[in-house]
Every structure is written in C-alpha cells, then in structure tokens.
Amino acid sequence: xxxxxxxxxxxxxxxxxxxxxxxxxxxxxxxxxxxxxxxxxxxxxxxxxxxxxxxxxxxxxxxxxxxxxxxxxxxxxxxxxxxxxxxxxxxxxxxxxxxxxxxxxxxxxxxx
Length: 112
Prior knowledge:
Layout: E1 4-7, H1 34-42, E2 57-60, E3 65-68, H2 81-84, H3 88-95, E4 102-105
Antiparallel strand pairs: 1-4, 2-3, 3-4
C-alpha cells in the first residue's frame, strides 16, 4: 500500500489537524487520546473491525486514514497493579500510548 506517514515527532515542525468531519470541531490527532479520537471518527466513518491489529492500528478505509501506536493503554490501565508497580520514568513513557504515535493517509482505493 502506498501511504504518507506522519510521526508524532513531526509536530515539532508543523501542526496536524483533522478538519471538520460533518459537525465536529477540528481536532489535533496527536493531542487527543486514542480511545476518544477513534470514537469521534468512528461516528463519521467506521474503522476496519476485521483488521488483526485493532487496538494498535485503526484503519478508516472510506477516509484513507490510519492511526498507529506501539502499545495499547487505556485510562482504566492507569489504576492497574501492573501500571502502578512501574517506576515513575517508565510510567511517563507508557503514558505516551494513550495517544497515537503516527498517522497515515492513503488513497481511498487502497484497502490493503
């Protein structure tokens, strides 16, 4: 599949926004928690629920848009024994997984 990937680090050089899907406000996908972002976009166009990487990757084929993160972390996980037992440095690093690390755009006809 041909695509353009925008990593989180690129936000040091430019802003990334998803501009109005129907009645939504513009949203910055790197500053919106993954679960919330997927909920918002899924209301407009459904993600591929058959993708074997769901949780890590969400593909919206009708929009030519995909999101990726290396680990799955939710708000509920923040109170788990596993998370609380981590050192503060590792907790801070883990918190990054509440957000997506990269966004890809691809041609609408590409569904691979």
